[in-house]
# Entry
Amino acid sequence: MNYQAFLNDLSIKNAISTNQKINKHVRACLKDALEEGLIPKDFTQGVTVAGKPVQAEEEKYLSEAETKKLLAEIRNGMNDQTTTRWMAIIQFAGGLRYSEVAGLTYDDLKKQTLRINKAWSFAEKKHVPTKNELKRTIKIEPSIASELKSYITRQRRNNMKVGIPNKDKLVFLSSPDSPPTHAAMNKSLKRACKRANVKEITSHALRHTHVSLLIYHGMDIVSISKRIGHKSPTTTIEKYSHIINELEHRNDEISDKMVASFL
# Structure
C-alpha cells in the first residue's frame, strides 16, 4: 500500500514512461533481495503504474511558420564560436540524427552533397557506424552548402593557428577532440526557442520537422526514407503515419480532380 501510494504521487509529477522505468528498477532490486532472503515478498506485484501521457517522439516537430521563426533566431548573431547553432542549421537542412551531425568530418562535404557514413559516440569518444549501418549521400540546399564550406575552411585555419590537432578531422568542436554534447545542443536550442517564442523542442525534433515538411511539400516516401537513413520506406510510414493521415483529405481532392478531368 505504501509503494502504491508512492507511485500515485509520482503519477502527478512524471510521464508514465518515467514511472514505468522507476518501477522496473525497483522490481529488479527486489528480485535480488528476494533471492538473498532479505525480504519476504515482492511488494511491487499487482501495482498500477500511471502518469502523464507522453507525446511520441516523432510527433514533436514545428510547423512551417514556427520553423522559419526559430531558424531566423538561430541565425541572428551566429558566428564561428556558436558551434551548436551551426549544428542546428545542418541538422535541420539534412534531417540528420545528432550523432551524425557531431560525426561530420572535413571531407564529408562535396560541392552540394553531404556524405553520411559514420556517427560520433560520446561514450567511446570516437567515430562509430551510423544507426542501422546505413551509409548515404544527400543533397543539401546550395547556399547552406556554401556557408558550411566557408565555415570548414575558417575552422581548419583557426585550428592550425592555435595548435588544435583535431585528429578526427571533426567539423564541429567544443574541445580539442570532441564535438558539443547532446545536452549542450538541447540547452542552446531551448534558449533559441524561447527567444523565437515557439514551443521548446530537442535537437531530434529538427530531424522530425525536416521530415514532416518534406511530406507536406509532396516528396515521396521512398526518397525521404533514403534521405534520412531508414531501413525501408515502411519504417518511415510507421514513424510518420500521423502526418500522412493528416494529408488524406488533400489526397482525396487530388484524386477527385484527376478523375473529373477525364469525365
